[in-house]
Amino acid sequence: MSEGLLHPLAVAEAWKKVGRDVAIATVIETWGSAPRPVGSHLVIDGEGNFEGSVSGGCVEGAVIAEALDVIADRAAKTLEFGVADETAWRVGLSCGGRIRVYLESLSFDIERLNDCRDRREAVALITSLDDGKAFIAAEGQEIAPALRATLDGAFRSGKSALVEVEGKSFFLNVYLPPPEIVVIGAVHISQVLAPMAKLAGFDIRIIDPRTAFATPDRFPDVELVADWPIDVLKERPLDRYTALVAVTHDPKIDDFAIAEALRAGCLYVGALGSRKTHASRLERLRAEGFDDAVLAGIHAPIGLNIGASNPAEIAVAILADVIQSLRTREIVARDSVQQ
């Protein structure tokens, strides 16, 4: 989940560092037209200063008042609020709803949580609603077997949720890095793919050293870099939450980016071209030391097989393929464990 430039968790960490007492309110369940999604935060210090939102302004005053009591006695509590229809209209909703908010004093390792977020690592804060204990788990980290499948599913979906495991109630708040699509090639397909990807919630950047192709007029409101991938990707590397889409047909431009994506373990690596073109590409990548098991992960022909026959349809197929890869990706076990 994302809270914008000034994330409440970053504010909470800063307050903690200067010795302030901090309470954190989190939306753990919603019904109807709730103003804020599950997982949203409001942080409050001992003086009543706050950052974030759990209701778009409807119930923040009540939550802040309760937070001061939680800070004083260190006892977590769960609050439930109804948002009346007339109040809902004022915050842009068509009807009312209800929300449950979990309120706790800051006791978990917020520095580690924010460090994972800053390094673009998926991480979850797992809170027992039975005893208030909370711990942090990075994606792929070893965890109790009873929670493993549920947490892996949350990491794939990106959705925070209340869960029941072996008769105990937990709230899983998952924080995924914003998924990114990096397109190699400022071509017609990219012109259609860019706005669709943004609508689907992806960050997108397009890299192409050919200045005749990579122009702001052809790609308005898109991060566009008219330079070689070998230079751009060294400055800003790919990672496991990036999808690499290579569409130039030119091995001098595409090959380095594809190789970097394979090394980084990107969630998706796709390359445009015929089967003959791809066979030649595989030979070049084998020469760089990639084995067939790794090369089998390249999506080529690129995109889902929907019979796409023009740039717009190919863009749809690519985006669908990327989303499918994101939501069904394998959760890779980590070597070390820290809780």
TrEMBL record:
- Residues forming the XdhC Rossmann domain are 181-322
List each copy of the XdhC- CoxI domain by range.
Answer: 15-82
Know the name of this protein?
A: XdhC family protein
Q: What lineage, starting at the top, does this entry show? A: Bacteria, Pseudomonadati, Pseudomonadota, Alphaproteobacteria, Hyphomicrobiales
